[in-house]
Design a protein that fits this description.
482 residues, four-stranded antiparallel beta sheet
């Protein structure tokens, strides 16, 4: 459905696919009904398909390589947003947009020719394109490509990268795996002490804390705990850039405390995409960093973050109304994110539209609640529901290993729901206001993924798609309540 929409909206003339698997995936009603003049070339020959192979078309005949004079501000690419709500919009980026963003990123965080990147985010994602391969190409660095997200742990060990570009979900999963292993009280106490001392060590290095006697414990704690965690990440990781969504504070602090140079950033496709990033010299994991060179930011109405930079898009493809609503007449990009700025650092405080409003008028941000619940290793994925409803509920995908250890079946009964699952959710939400209480929960067996259309390429839940997919299940949660 998404592919068909993009092919049609962008009026695509040539489609490159990898092989038979992609070709079969395109044999849907929506795609087959597209213009017959659409050319399809495959990287790998597909016998009997009638699809031309790339080698056949590119190298069969001798010809001189044709070059074209391209203006810096000419359209280079249309990147479709992977929004969690609504249809994707085609973001038009120029050559200058992209190259400026990669160069500005290098000015903020040093990258060297001997750096080795491990790429595992989808190449359709603007962060991976600009910072995952245009930037290392500029620096003369090397990029290795992971086989897949499920193979990432193995690939980190084999490749031993010095730089990775990641989204929060990668670190959340690693954090939950660590929590699963801390079954003995002694192990948990040792881990917690390592995080405490390591975080203090980091704050001292950043000039925000004074040296304390317990820092003498760090060499031992590093050897017993921190180095073992870093070894799981390949052992040579110099920098980890995290963006695409908000990184839960507890997760970020844990990895920073263990010695990972984790730099959270902020951006959006419409800004090519990076707007700000923490630097090794000025790193506050609670913030999304300092604006890149030549980026201007200010706080507008309703605390909205506004951005002006050479990276601001040319506009939305075939959508002048949406362009005018996003980039005002003075060139400021309206991000839709609420923020504050303190000592130059940007702190994202919420979304203007990402608010649940209960039937009684109470308002709350679901993302903050979901992040809190997901810190429990039992919950692999979660969305909080309740817009225009009498109370909050949740859809969750359970971690099969943790659930089995707690005696929870694949289809939990009422006892498991009331005695195990709901109390754990309640505990995670204890710091929220009283009205932000999840009263009912439903479990979903099938994990949400990019492949089944329920996650964006940056692994964020597509809220509307999930609500549509599980409408019957959700309605049952509210049966008997008007």
């Amino acid at each position: 459905e998404s592919v068909a929409y993009i092919l049609d909206d962008a009026d695509v003339k040539l489609l490159l696919i990898e092989g038979a698997e992609h070709w079969l995936a395109l044999q849907t009603e929506e795609c087959v009904a597209l213009r017959p003049e659409l050319l399809v070339w495959s990287m790998v020959p597909i016998p009997g398909s009638g699809v031309a192979s790339l080698a056949e078309m590119m190298w069969a005949k001798e010809a001189e390589l044709q070059t074209a004079a391209v203006e810096p501000w000419a359209l280079a690419t249309i990147v479709y947003t992977s929004g969690t709500t609504g249809k994707p919009k085609g973001v038009m980026l120029s050559h200058y947009n992209i190259l400026w963003n990669a160069y500005a990123g290098m000015q903020a965080v040093s990258v060297y020719a001997d750096d080795l990147f491990l790429s595992f985010l989808p190449l359709s994602h603007a962060l991976e394109r600009s910072i995952g391969y245009y930037l290392p190409m500029m620096a003369g660095a090397t990029v290795a490509y992971a086989r897949s997200i499920p193979h990432l742990a193995e690939d980190l060990q084999v490749v031993q990268p010095t730089v990775i570009i990641a989204v929060p979900r990668i670190f959340e999963r690693s954090y939950n795996r660590i929590q699963e292993t801390l079954t003995k009280s002694v192990a948990r106490a040792l881990f917690d002490k390592t995080v405490e001392v390591g975080w203090q060590r980091f704050e001292i290095a950043q000039g925000r804390a004074n040296w304390q006697l317990q820092q003498l414990m760090w060499p031992l704690l590093q050897r017993l705990v921190a180095d073992k965690v870093m070894a799981k990440l390949g052992g040579k990781l110099r920098i980890a850039i995290c963006g695409g969504a908000a990184l839960p504070p507890k997760v970020g602090q844990t990895f920073v405390a263990l010695g990972l140079n984790l730099l959270q950033g902020y951006g959006m496709t419409e800004a090519s995409p990076v707007v700000a990033v923490n630097t090794p010299e000025s790193n506050d994991p609670a913030s999304v960093g300092l604006p890149l060179p030549d980026v201007q930011v200010m706080i507008g109405d309703e605390d909205e973050l506004l951005v002006a930079s050479p990276g601001v898009m040319l506009g939305y493809w075939n959508n002048p109304e949406a362009t005018a609503a996003t980039v005002d007449e003075t060139g400021w990009l309206h991000t839709g994110d609420k923020a504050r700025i303190d000592n130059g650092h940007i702190y994202i405080t919420g979304r203007l539209k990402d608010i649940l409003v209960l039937a009684n008028g109470e308002k709350m941000p679901p993302c903050d609640m979901e992040d809190a619940i997901a810190e429990d290793p039992l919950f692999e994925q979660v969305i909080v529901l309740g817009d225009a409803r009498p109370f909050l509920s949740a859809l969750v995908v359970l971690n099969a290993v943790v659930a089995k250890g707690l005696g929870i079946d694949e289809a939990p009964d009422d006892h498991a729901m009331k005695k195990i699952i709901l109390p754990r959710i309640t505990e995670r939400l204890s710091c929220f206001p009283g009205y932000a209480r999840v009263r009912r929960v439903a479990t979903v067996r099938e994990p949400w993924s990019v492949e089944n259309g329920l996650l964006t390429p940056t692994l964020k839940p597509k809220r509307l798609r999930i609500l549509e997919r599980y409408k019957v299940l959700i309605d049952k949660l509210y049966e008997g309540h008007s």
